[in-house]
Amino acid sequence: MTAAVASLAVTAYPSPRMRIPLFPLHAVLTPGLALSLHVFEDRYRVMVRHCLDTDSPFGIVLIHEGSEVVPRHGRGAELAIAGVGTFAEIREASRHSDGRWDLLTVGSGRFTIEEVHTELEPYLVAEVHRLDDAVGDADTADALVQHVIRRFVEYLRLLQPRDGESVPPIDVQVEVEVSAQPAAGEASELEASPDQPADTDQPGAPSDLASSLRIPEDPSQLSFLLTGIVQVRPDRKQALLEADSAEDRLRELDRLLDGELALLRRRLAPYLADRRSLADRVS
């Protein structure tokens, strides 16, 4: 897991409404998290070139039904996508000699889709509206932040393999802007919950996590970060992405963590995404 996150990089786009390329995936990208993509389908090679030439983002949206190989000009299988997605900004791009691309993208904000065009380009193009994230009730959201952070520490601790177990590591990348000391209210190091003391003999216990993770205390930033990290099905991540406020998202994350902690305490496997399928998209 990437060691630290100090702040969420959010790009100020020129207007709330804009036209962007769409990249449908069987995955959910959340603001502040990174996603590596291997792009080899012709239409998406064109899309990457356009985004690099114009220094503009594309949009990642969850596929509800259909394939990532989008039919051109309406021919072929139907594709049903979510109505809310995430702006993906290209941070790194490496082009192979045969035209394929390896990308590192970072989510920089949400959008809602107002109209989809299938005839303008080889790939889907959408009219989208930037979607800001409301906090909700500030006092309630702040209280949820402290509660959810403590439960999240326990969740990470229980995900660590015990003796004789083999568990795939959580491989989540985040947008990192690290300073020597975080500004007041910006971020805090994770600490063990007072009612769940760290087991210092257990690898990956909260005392170890606290030295390697820095997590934001801002309700929106925290809720998006945890949405990207918690190992649940894409449809549940999508519901979290679409939540009306950070307060609502944190409440739902609290409920999800409750269920995941119960499974992990009984050593039942949580949902794990196929990381290879994320890295090797038909894209």
Keywords, separated by commas or semicolons:
283 residues; alpha+beta; Archaeosine Trna-guanine Transglycosylase, Chain: A, domain 4; 2 domains; five-stranded mixed β-barrel; two-stranded antiparallel sheet; 10 strands; disordered N terminus; disordered C terminus
Could you describe the 3D structure shown?
- Helix 2 (138-159) packs parallel to helix 6 (246-265).
- This protein is α+β, with helices and mostly antiparallel strands and 283 residues long.
- Strand 5 (84-95) and strand 6 (101-117) form a beta hairpin.
- The chain has helices spanning 42-54, 138-159, 206-212, 219-229, 234-241, 246-265, 275-279; strands at residues 17-25, 33-39, 58-65, 80-81, 84-95, 101-117, 125-131, 173-174, 187-189, 214-216.
- It is built from seven helices and ten strands.
- It is globular and about 50 Å long.
- The longest helix is centred in the middle third of the chain and has 22 residues, at 138-159.
- The strands form two sheets. A five-stranded mixed β-barrel has the order 1-3-5-6-7. Strands 9-10 form a two-stranded antiparallel sheet.
- The protein has two domains: 17-131, Archaeosine Trna-guanine Transglycosylase, Chain: A, domain 4; 138-265, no CATH class.
